[in-house]
Amino acid sequence: MDLINMAxxxxxxxxxxxxxxxxxxxxxARRDPxxxxxxxxxxxxxxxRIVARSPRAMAFLVDLNDFKAINDTHGHLAGDAVxxxxxxxxxxxxxxxxxxxxxxxxxxxxxxxxxTNRPGAAALDHALRQPVIYRDQVIPVSASVGFCSVADLPxxxxxxxxxxxxxxxxxxxxxxRRNNTPRP
Length: 184
Known about the structure:
Number of strands: 6
Shape: flat
Order of helices and strands: HHEHHEEHEEEH
Largest sheet: 4 strands, antiparallel
Strand order of the largest sheet: 2-3-1-6
């Protein structure tokens, strides 16, 4: 290769390399480092496409119950182990045709295009309630699961599906969002 062709090829190679690095960074930014699940941004983009194409889609929200007590009793590394185990269980449940995310803290989401060919909310709830073994300690885990069928919504949007699933999740918890009083 002559010098002129090499000089022309170097910037193209540089841009291709730079593009590859940026693509990897963007992908990493859309994944939670502890769990490997999508972050809220990565989840939202894909979930909106699923909602638009799948009239039988179901949205699920999961919140660990009394998670602060796990951290306070067993330590933050044990809390991380519970978060990671919850993520793995949720991902396994949605495996194949759903998308899962860690929205933040101890809150997770899943969206499946069609829930008729998979275990339902009761199976998910059962999987999430299994204890976690961390450093020879058995840590009990409890989670509240709320779900919403997109087909049941007057306006079929991801935002509305997650809002309805959130309402159902807090009803499952048996108390309001910022206090411990029962919801009407």
